[in-house]
Design brief:
It is built from 1 helix and 10 strands. By secondary structure, the protein is mostly beta strands. The protein has a domain at 24-38 and 60-186 and 215-230: Beta Barrel (Porin).
């Protein structure tokens, strides 16, 4: 009798563990909204063949909202653990402006970030049958435009991580809350202009002025909520 009870308990435990693994495994899709902030340590270097070099620097930043599509697949990886592999895509753009502290130019620039996406891996650890804790590592990419430049910057590329909580509302519907940080590679853009000096020793000379703008350590911080469905 004792042996039968022990076998029954083992079978029940195995069944419970299997159900927990199934709760967070399989394909899923969701829509997320984020409150995001980006900060850039911007710098400017100005060189000319007829005048001294002028430099300027200053922070550039903005707070904005984002919406994204999230799709992925949860792979069972042992007792109480699932590995989620997926991607997010944001079909929108965000604009923010900055201005160099170099008083000689006073030129402002608008940065536009378009169509960001991420590819991620997220180990997920069940707390109970309806909730799980996860950590996420991801690669991120976005298109970039900068106004008042003749040479466009490269795309934003970087890596980041997040941590959060996933809760099943029904057997299929879920809500997910997470905090994320992304650190991008530096990007730069240049513009140049030709002017003719009107007075002084250099009167009539053609001046070539080149300005290089560098966005150092662009960092994106997000608080994100995702509502989704597990198929």
């Amino acid at each position: 009798m004792n042996k039968i009870c022990k076998l029954s308990a083992i079978a029940l435990l195995a069944s419970s563990t299997s159900l927990m693994a199934q709760t967070f495994s399989g394909p899923y899709a969701g829509v997320s909204v984020s409150a995001a902030g980006i900060g850039i340590d911007a710098s400017k270097t100005n060189t000319s063949n007829t005048s001294s070099t002028g430099n300027g620097d200053g922070p550039v930043g903005a707070v904005f909202g984002l919406a994204a599509i999230d799709i992925g697949y949860g792979i069972p990886a042992g007792k109480g653990t699932t590995i989620a592999v997926g991607a997010t895509y944001t079909p929108m753009e965000a604009d923010f402006s900055g201005k160099s502290t170099d008083a000689s130019s006073g030129q402002s620039h608008k940065f536009t970030i378009k169509n960001p996406y991420t590819v991620y891996v997220a180990p997920t650890f069940e707390i109970n049958k309806d909730s799980a804790f996860f950590v996420k590592a991801f690669y991120s990419h976005a298109d970039v435009k900068v106004t008042n430049t003749t040479t466009a910057p490269g795309d934003l590329k970087g890596y980041g991580g997040s941590t959060g909580l996933k809760v099943m509302l029904t057997s299929n519907a879920f809500i997910q809350m997470e905090a994320a940080v992304t650190r991008f590679d530096d990007i730069s853009a240049t513009d140049s202009s030709l002017t003719v000096a009107q007075t002084g020793a250099l009167a009539g000379a053609t001046a070539t002025s080149t300005r290089k703008y560098v966005a150092n350590d662009p960092t994106l911080v997000e608080g994100r909520i995702t509502v989704g469905y597990k198929f």
